[in-house]
Design goal:
single chain; 458 residues; alpha/beta; Uracil-DNA Glycosylase, subunit E; 2 domains; four-stranded antiparallel β-sheet; four-stranded mixed β-sheet; 16 helices; 47% helix; globular
Amino acid sequence: MRIAEPDLFRQFEGVIRAFPVRDRFERSDLLIPSLLLHREGSLEMYYAPFGAVNLSASIVLLGITPGWTQMEIAYRVARREMEAGLSGEEICRRAKQNASFAGTMRANLIRMLDELGTPSFLGVDSTTALFGPAAALLHTASAVRYPVFVRGRNYTGHGPDMLRNPFLRECVELVLGPELASVTDALIVPLGNAVSAALEHLANRGDLSSERCLFGFPHPSGANGGRVRDFTARRKELTERVAIHFRAKAEQGAGTERPLRPRRRRMFSQDADLFFWSPRTEIGPPNWFGVLYLLRRDIDLCMGIHPSTGQPVAYQAEWPGAMTMLAGIDLLAKFFAGSDDYKRGKVGERFRKFLERFFAGLSQADRDVIYRLRNSLLHSFGLYSKGGAEVYRFVLTAHGTGPLVSHSQPDQYNVDLRVLHREFEKAVAAYQAAVNSDPQLQANFAAMFVNYGRVYIG
């Protein structure tokens, strides 16, 4: 997914620099093909410089998606700051700081946060300071990072539903999830029901602790006619939850935190919780570790992603990353089948069945290619495999776009490792959901977990 790439600003910098410095941009200036990220039907997503992440923030204000007003301000600021010769990172930070929750919504938001007693826990007189001298305490974000328009109007989180639309759901899972995991322990304030639903989805996947989220906070928009009524009804509860969050954080800072323990059980068993533990959670030894957890963290690192923050790192090791992903499919195939039978043909049979069930849209021929690549890398440590009369010569790429498997010459098969990584993570989530609701799959899981599910690192 292109929007999951960490440094899109570099790709669009030339387009932005070609704009004149203006006091205001029009829609015809910015809603143009060269800034378009995605289109499906009447839905369009455009790039805007909103990629900056404040890793040290104490509070996250989370909206639905930047609207036209925020997009226009961000471009105006970014183009102006380019003239000052600032770095891309600083340009994005300033653009986002100026544009986030601009307008009357900001005033309503400040008033509501102040009434919950938030300033006293942040050490400021008013949350107004978060948009000025105390900006280091604040991270602003959106459930869908880049501006989305439906029939030319700002997207509101519905029509299409954010979690039912495959593209928007991937935005939540592949962009928002890692972003929030990187802003460790900050209080997350979701603005409205659609955003709360996105956070609940991430929590159900194990990618986010729901205890960090201030669920029930009404959307501060002036267009929300029930805002004052809802806020008044929930103010006592919200005030208590803000206090609980920051007091617990203060206790941790004083060295009084309890040893790490698994969060409330979300799966059908504690063993399953351990196995599907989010790779964004950093756990230190001595401890029991889920084997899948360790594999996913190693895959991230090999693919140039910091396993705890989801941010890019300066090195990659894609060859061992490919081997680890294929080993991960092998592992999950055992659990799915409830069998580790290594008799002739059994390994390939369960490997292909797992791909058929959880790698959506992968043809039988492509499933065979992935299995042959697995044999080539894990057994021969090369990129050549022969099965009967069929010869497979593999080329590994890392573009992140296009199909997982392509066939360019009679015996040459190209496999995109970034697409494989993305599809592997989707398969993990799909299998996790399936096993949590199917008693037979749970029995299969339990049969394999005793030998393959966890390891102790002292």
